[in-house]
Write a structure and sequence with these properties.
Largest sheet of chain A: 9 strands, mixed
Oligomer: heterodimer
Order of helices and strands of chain A: EHEHHEHEHHHEEEHEHHEHHHHEE
Structural class of chain A: alpha/beta
Strand order of the largest sheet of chain A: 3-2-4-7-1-8-11-10-9
Radius of gyration of chain A: 19 Å
Structural class of chain B: alpha/beta
Number of strands of chain B: 11
Largest sheet of chain B: 9 strands, mixed
Chain lengths: 386, 383
């Protein structure tokens, strides 16, 4: 297998109702990533696009529409789509392009423009359900995640304030992110007193809908060595989908994330993730999801993540920094484009380019993860400093 | 190619305009079961990864990816969706194997287009929302305009396009999978109802439902699985500009570039003499001629003459769309590319029944994603 390195990343600010079109946001992120890598579009052999439901943009074959903004015109161009898992799955697809020898330099672009949906992107989520079994109940996402959060809290006896700590931490971390949409200095009480959405989910437990794009440049080791001495390698990848029948699983533990993590750890030859991983960016669209995913990633025992959070282990200067970017809770949640605060962030942390967000002690190994579909998809990517 | 990849299993439903007795999951289940049986593999143990090709608007869901795993035996396994044609999915599957991450991959592609009451409007939703969508009308006007540009630019004729439709519909009579096999002459096509001038009713492939699954394996695994492997020796894919206004109309740049990529990989310098037969996209009759010139199986402006000289007939120099293509079997939307790959595999295995071609070693499959895209893929298969 050819070794694959990351050479650059880029992302737009995350906001609701950015004036730029999806093409323009893709262009902006792509340009930043190319500049960081010291490459031009003509050096790019192939382009991978990641984007979630077409219903957000109201454009059928959205990938085809975005392709020139993402630099794909006249090139081998592919779009992958695994729901919310797309954010970390897209660079995995880029990895295949280079490891297989089909490309030496691959541009990975992720875009989401949710605000085109009127009045709110939640209405596009009305079409993600089984038309016979689920849709007549008129469910929405907050509603099912409330069920999952409740189950997680019930099984482990977790208090709401221990979950609220995640929102406080991530929104504070986001104060250091130039693209952040909801960075804030909050207290646990602020979260606990925020508007009740669907018990136990409150407004400050949730990440916002956002517009945005992000991009990464991946290259073969041979190309990367010519451009930089500080190599960051893609070291392990895993992806896993559970059954469509979400009502059939016990929601307290994301087995599919564990499946993807085990695949990635095997590839990266990691036997003790808690000891060997220096920095983590699990998917945190809700505060409980960060905890849920830390457990799914086997970074701690089941039910232990809230304890580690309470003890400060997951703070930026803690023993295992988690979501030092500010995550989806603080920076924003343009579904696929959260690649910028997951995969790009891990690259920036390992390359020592994270600026004010930099975690101390020279991290060597980082992991990022995304989650999506009907509480069903896990994608995991591990990077290692050369 | 260092890591050779073989097709070790193939399965398909029939292609039919209406499948109201089966839902889309049942179509996928049928094709997958047949492919796994053909390969002699248990998907839950023996297949490492699953790829489906789909677009939300075709399926009528947001995040269609959710609805893929169960009917493919892919629950709790590495599975992904590619928003592309079946040959794009094939390319992803091959890259997964070549990258060393997996050994055996199943690729699925399907059409359940009969569920869609508003096909025209959905295709219009793929047009640029500011510049093109407001022009409305039936989106196939783009194909009519492109046909006109192609014929004017290349010197090929409407009669020659009608010849393509006649050949493919006749070929489909020998294909039990096909829905539109019939004895149709050039005059019948020329006399059929005018639709998107100069395209007439019989120049345009009718929509059908169906599902196709191919199972691919790395060489060392393939030898244990089957005695009759078909090797994928080259593949490529490419997209032109999405802007209708910015394209070189009448030229399939995506097919030219994809073929170049695939030929380089397969070590093919002279496609006309090195490729024995081909299945190329013919969602519109002119597209077959256009694509043949783009992938180098006919000289520029010569595809129509070659057709009239019988070169592309099943008993000609280089049989094209012996399956019946989309004109004869039906337009499977995103599954059209995998339909072509399936036919090439069946031919190379010697399993094409009454339409079996003789003395073939190497075949080509080529796809196009349809109006309004300029995206497509190519794959080369060998015995």
């Amino acid at each position: 297998m050819r070794k694959v390195c990351v050479l650059g990343g880029g992302m737009t600010i995350f906001r609701r109702r950015l004036q730029e079109t999806g093409k323009e946001m893709s262009y902006e992120a792509t340009k930043m990533a190319l500049e960081e890598a010291g490459l031009e579009l003509k050096d790019v052999d192939s382009v991978v696009m990641g984007s979630a439901p077409d219903a957000f943009d109201g454009i059928h074959m959205k990938g085809e529409n975005l392709l020139d903004g993402a630099g794909g015109a006249g090139k081998p161009y592919l779009r992958v789509f695994v729901g919310g898992g797309t954010a970390v799955f897209t660079p995995i697809a880029g990895w295949w392009h280079i490891a297989s020898g089909m490309a030496d330099v691959c541009l990975v672009v992720a875009e989401e423009k949710m605000s085109s949906v009127f009045p709110h992107p939640q209405s596009a989520f009305g079409h993600i359900w089984d038309p016979i079994l689920d849709r007549p109940l008129k469910p929405n996402l907050v509603w099912i995640f409330a069920m999952e959060m409740n189950r997680y809290m019930t099984v482990h006896g977790i208090k709401k304030e221990d979950i609220a700590r995640v929102a406080v931490k991530n929104k504070r971390n986001a104060l250091d992110h130039p693209c952040a949409q909801l960075a804030a200095n909050l207290t646990i009480d602020d979260v606990l007193n925020s508007e009740m959405m669907a018990w136990p989910v409150q407004r400050l437990d949730i990440s916002p809908p956002s517009d945005g794009a992000s991009a990464m440049i991946l290259a073969s080791e041979e190309v990367a060595k010519k451009l930089t001495d500080d190599l960051v390698y893609l070291d392990g990848a895993g992806w896993c989908i559970d059954s469509t029948m979400w009502t059939d699983r016990d929601l307290y533990f994301p087995e599919y994330v564990a499946g993807a993590a085990k695949m990635a750890y095997k590839m990266a030859k990691i036997e003790n993730p808690r000891k060997e991983i220096d920095v983590a960016e699990p998917y945190d669209p809700f505060d409980y999801k960060e905890l849920h995913h830390m457990e799914g990633l086997l970074l701690c025992d089941k039910g232990e993540a809230p304890i580690l959070t309470r003890e400060g282990v997951t703070e930026r200067d803690g023993d295992l920094p988690v979501c030092p970017s500010g995550g989806l809770l603080g920076v924003g949640n343009p579904i696929a484009a959260t690649m910028g605060i997951k995969a790009c962030e891990i690259y920036w942390q390992l390359a020592g380019k994270a600026g004010k967000r930099q975690v101390p002690n020279d991290p060597q190994v980082g992991i990022c993860q995304a989650w999506g579909d009907l509480m069903q998809y896990g994608s995991v990517l591990i990077m290692r400093r050369g | 190619m260092e890591d050779r990849i073989a097709v070790v299993g193939a399965g398909s439903t029939k292609f039919r305009p209406d499948t109201s007795e089966q839902n889309w999951k049942e179509l996928m289940f049928e094709a997958a079961s047949k492919a796994y049986l053909d390969a002699g593999l248990n998907p839950r143990k023996d297949i490492d990864s699953f790829v489906t090709c789909a677009e939300d608007y075709w399926e009528g869901f947001s995040i269609y990816d959710e609805f893929v795993p169960d009917q493919l035996g892919a629950a709790m396994r590495p599975t992904c969706t590619v928003c592309g044609d079946g040959l794009h999915g094939l390319a992803i599957a091959c890259m997964q194997i070549m990258s060393g991450m997996v050994d055996v991959v199943a690729v699925e592609s399907h059409s359940k287009i009969s569920d869609l009451n508003t096909y025209n409007d959905v295709v219009l939703f793929a047009f640029d929302p500011i510049y093109n969508r407001p022009l409305a009308g039936h989106p196939y006007y783009v194909a009519g305009m492109e046909m006109n540009a192609f014929l004017n630019g290349s010197g090929n004729t409407e009669e020659q396009c009608a010849g393509v439709a006649s050949k493919n519909m006749t070929n489909a009579l020998k294909n039990p999978l096909g829905a539109y096999g019939k004895n149709v002459g050039v005059g019948d096509v020329m006399g059929s109802e005018p639709m998107f001038s100069p395209a007439k009713k019989l120049d345009i492939a009718e929509l059908v439902d169906g599902s196709i699954v191919l199972v691919l394996a790395r060489a060392e695994k393939a030898k244990d699985i089957t005695d009759n492997p078909v090797w994928i020796t080259g593949f490529g894919w490419n997209s032109g500009t999405p802007w209708l206004e910015g394209r070189a109309w009448g030229r399939a740049s995506y097919a030219e570039e994809a073929a170049k990529m695939a030929y380089k990989m397969a070590g093919i310098a002279e496609p006309r003499s090195e490729i024995g037969f081909a299945e190329v996209d013919d969602k519109f009759s002119y597209k077959e001629l256009m694509h043949l010139e783009a992938v180098g199986l006919a000289g520029k402006g010569q595809a129509g003459n070659d057709l009239e000289n019988g070169r592309f007939q099943p008993d000609g120099d280089i049989p094209i769309n012996a399956s019946g293509g989309s004109l004869g079997c039906g337009n499977l939307i995103e599954a059209s590319g995998l339909h072509r790959a399936l036919e090439v595999v069946l031919q190379l295995r010697g399993q094409a029944d009454g339409r079996q071609l003789n003395d073939i070693e190497r075949g080509l499959a080529q796809s196009w994603r349809g109006v309004p895209t300029a995206s497509g893929a190519v794959a080369v298969f060998e015995r």
